[in-house]
Amino acid sequence: MVDEPLVSAAKGVAKVFGDEARESEKRRQLSDTALAAVEHSGLFSALVPQRFGGAEIDFHIIPQLVRELAKGDTSSAWVTAFLIHHNWQFALYPLETQEELWAERNYALAPATLAPTGRAERVDGGWNLSGRWQWATGVMHSQWALVTAIAAVQEVEEMALMLLPIEDVEVVDVWHTEGMRATGSNDMVITEAFVPDRRAITYRAISKREAPGQIASSNPLYKLDMLALLSVDATATSVGAGERSLELFTERLHERKLMFGGRQKDSSTAQVRLARAASIMRSARLMFDAAVHDLCAPLRDEPFPSPEKRVRIRMDCAHVVDLVKQGLALISDGAGATSHFLESPLQRFRRDVSTLSGHILFDYDRAAELQGQMMLGIKPPSGTLF
Fold first, then answer.
1. Average pLDDT for residues 310-338, to the nearest whole number?
2. What is the pTM of this model?
3. Range of 324's domain?
């Protein structure tokens, strides 16, 4: 099933992303024009419940949208994908919190962090939250913030996802990077901010599908595994970058004249390089599509993925990103020196995928270790997220 209007909208936004890529990189966040294109497209509300004016589409469509966006610019697609995903996370909160978030429009924007680098102390009616969090993708465009903190719930320390207005957040400008510049993933500092109970949910409740919003909704969309969803969203950006790079490389082979005569397309080495890159990208796409299919089983009235399958999805996502990196290296080595000029999308795709591959979701060794443990019947360490 394909949502044609949203796919068409994503393709239109991708063109804007490509046109605005240099400006977004220079600003280290989405340009005003790029952000406006997403806001007007309806993409931000794709996973918002229909009761609040959202599209509430089946999740398997989201990776397709993100792939299309990434063909314009990888880092712009990444921040957009995360901001879409975070609206899915909002739907896990109590209905009164959802009403607060979507009172004025059918989406809200917030960064969200996984690492529990803050602490929340119990106070009357809620929590007193302090900490510093890295990798706050989208913070430069947001009205809210989602952070993970350690909280003592019924005298047991747990990881909790806490929501608070951006006014309670100090943004620290640290995002000076080689790639993924448009994500604006700066640090956030929060000092003794009050978080009411309605804006705090534990990871344990989410993993058991017992968060208030999961109970309130009959749609299995909101009961899918949170970390696996994020992994697939993020991986889609690399797949789109790889696919577009292959298209650009093919066009370049047709056009490029070699210094000592002839066209590059007639070179047997170029033909072999193109075929190898195409096979790598196809392998990445097939593995990626399989991961999306497995994750979305509950949307087909099939059982939720087992822990073993969720670990495999994480491993597959890491492997897909690694395959795309291999394909982009082949393309870069064969595309000539002018492909390294800043106006060339090829160098930007390569830089961005190289940078995003360092995300914890794509830690290849850790993902492989977890899958190996599962395959051998070894229980992963307590507290491991997968």
1. 95
2. 0.96
3. 224-375
